[in-house]
Design goal:
Layout (H helix, E strand, L loop, with lengths): L2 H24 L6 H8 L3 H7 L3 H29 L4 H18 L1 H11 L7 H24 L9 H22 L5 H12 L8
C-alpha cells in the first residue's frame, strides 16, 4: 500500500470516528459536515474529497463498523476451529468477540442499534445488507453444528443467529449504560450460561 492510500485510510478513519461520536451525541440531522471536519481535525473540503455527502459518509460508516464486527466474529469462529473446538465453543468465542467489539466501539453500537429501528433512511438497504453479513457468520456455525449432530435439528438457524447477535448487542448496551461496574468477563459469563442453556439450573 503506497503512502497516499495509507494517508487516505487514516483520514477516513478519523472522519468515521468523528462522525459516529457526533451523530451518537446529537443525531444525524443535527450534525453538520463542518462539525465532523472540525472534530476530525481536517478541512471541510477533505470530507467532500473522501465522501460525496454526509449521507454517503454515514452509509460508509455503517459498512465500515459492521464490517469490523463481522470480521471479529469470523476470527473468533476460525480460531476455535483451528484449535479443534466445538461449534458451541465457537459461538461462545463469538459472544466474547462481540462484547469486545462493543466495548471498543460503544458509540457506533448505540448508533447501529438505533438505526435498525428507523425505516425512512436512505441507507436502510445498506444497513440490512451489512447486518445480514454479521448474522450470516453465526448462521454458518449453527448450520455446521446441526450438520455434525452437535446441535438439534429443530433449531431455526436464521432466527437463532439473529437472536444471538441481538442478545449480545442489547446486553452489551445495557452493560455500557447501566452496569459499568461489571467487567467484560462478568457479562460474557452471564451470556455464556444462556448459550449453554443452564439458566434453568438443569445441567
Amino acid at each position: 500500500m503506497d503512502s497516499s492510500s495509507t494517508r487516505r485510510q487514516v483520514t477516513r478513519q478519523k472522519l468515521y470516528e468523528a462522525a459516529v461520536t457526533l451523530i451518537a451525541e446529537q443525531g444525524f440531522s443535527s450534525t453538520t459536515v463542518d462539525e465532523i471536519a472540525e472534530r476530525a481535525g481536517v478541512a471541510k473540503g477533505t470530507v467532500y474529497y473522501n465522501f460525496k455527502s454526509k449521507t454517503e459518509l454515514f452509509e460508509e460508516l455503517l459498512r465500515h463498523g459492521v464490517g469490523l464486527l463481522t470480521a471479529s466474529l469470523q476470527a473468533a469462529a476460525d480460531e476455535t476451529a483451528e484449535r479443534g473446538g466445538t461449534k458451541v465453543e465457537a459461538l461462545d468465542a463469538m459472544i466474547r468477540a462481540g462484547l469486545g467489539f462493543i466495548d471498543r466501539y460503544p458509540a457506533f453500537t448505540q448508533l447501529y442499534v438505533a438505526e435498525l429501528w428507523r425505516t425512512n433512511r436512505a441507507w436502510q438497504s445498506t444497513l440490512l445488507v451489512v447486518r445480514q453479513e454479521a448474522v450470516a457468520v453465526v448462521e454458518t456455525v449453527l448450520r455446521e453444528g446441526v450438520e455434525n449432530g452437535e446441535l438439534s435439528k429443530e433449531i431455526d438457524i436464521p432466527l437463532t443467529a439473529a437472536a444471538l447477535v441481538g442478545m449480545v448487542l442489547v446486553a452489551a448496551l445495557d452493560w455500557q449504560a447501566f452496569q459499568r461496574e461489571r467487567t467484560i468477563d462478568d457479562v460474557h459469563s452471564a451470556l455464556s450460561l444462556l448459550l449453554h442453556g443452564r439458566v434453568s439450573g438443569r445441567r
